[in-house]
Amino acid sequence: MSTLSEGTDAASTQHLQQQKEDQEPLIGQQPGYRTSEDEDITAPASTSESVWQKAFLLIWDSGLACIAVASLCSSIGALCIKLLDGRIPVFEIVMVRSTISWAVTDALGRAQHITPLYGSRKRYPILALRGTMGAIAMALYYEAFERLMLSEAMTLYFIYPAITVVMAWLVHGEAATWVSAAGCGISLLGVAFIARPPFLFGGAVQYGVQHWLGVASAFGSAFSAAAAMVAVRAIKQSEASLTVALWFHSLAVVGAILPLSLGYPSPPVLPTFKEWVPLLAIAACSCVTQVCLNRGFQLEVAAKASAVNYTQVS
């Protein structure tokens, strides 16, 4: 009887260990992947590790929290773009940011054993659409910041959450509640009053060709960003958020090669040490922003996610 009991216990332990090995990695997981069996066979972690892990899971399993983190990082990135003071060309910024972000995201995906790393072949079209629209939105976003005041560029760009709600309704049938719609409208007014762009509140601004190119870039970026988020809603949780981010970074690098090689809008320059600091900060913010933004829109409907995304005010 004792031998039988010991054999049963050994088989049970082996089964639990196999379950743990077969689980998806943390960042590629769906919510609710933790089990009580995992806790039984995992060695006790230190108190600090346990606190950090719980804090991470609290954010990771909440779509709204992920979007709030993405918004904060995106705001920091926007500030760093202005710190570069326009000396480094737009597509050089895109190339540096996207190359570093791609390398880090790829390494994280491999460390988490996400397979296939670039997603299922049948989802390549929608993943490519999300990556392409995101890359276009980013390039135009930087163009707008180069040509407009920060407050004006941010206000124009931030029509994109409202556009996302409309697109999601038209494409996916995600009807916004009156509360969500009112929240988007009030938040948009709040952004305008905080940023106080000259075209709404007056001010000494030269409305020349450069200004209107900046306005067109901001609007184009808003529509492209909305299309990218609607694509994420189509993907939902069928692919890991790291996989979705990899497509974005990869296509952003590809898209920056031609204009950068042609010297558009100006030839590339060698960044100084002081310029490398904001460049690296932009890349770091990009890594966090893309993963968290994808995760947030995978978990939440577009209306609710877009309303929270209005917290991104620089």
Name its key features.
14 helices; mainly alpha; 314 residues; disordered N terminus
The overall strand count is: 0
Gross geometry: globular
Helical content class: over 70%
Largest sheet: none
Counting DSSP H or I runs of 4 or more residues, the number of helices is 14
Strand content bin? under 5%
Separation of termini? Answer: 70 Å
Low-confidence stretches: 1-9, 18-26, 28-45
Average pLDDT, all residues: 81
> What value does the Rg take, in angstroms?
22 Å
Structural class: mainly alpha
Descriptive notes:
With 314 residues, the protein is mainly α. The protein has helices spanning 2-22, 36-41, 47-60, 63-83, 90-111, 124-147, 150-157, 160-172, 178-195, 198-201, 209-235, 241-261, 273-299, 302-309. α9 packs parallel to α14 (302-309). It starts with a helix and ends in a 5-residue tail after the last helix.
Outline of the structure:
The protein has 314 residues and is mainly alpha-helical. It contains 14 helices and no strands.
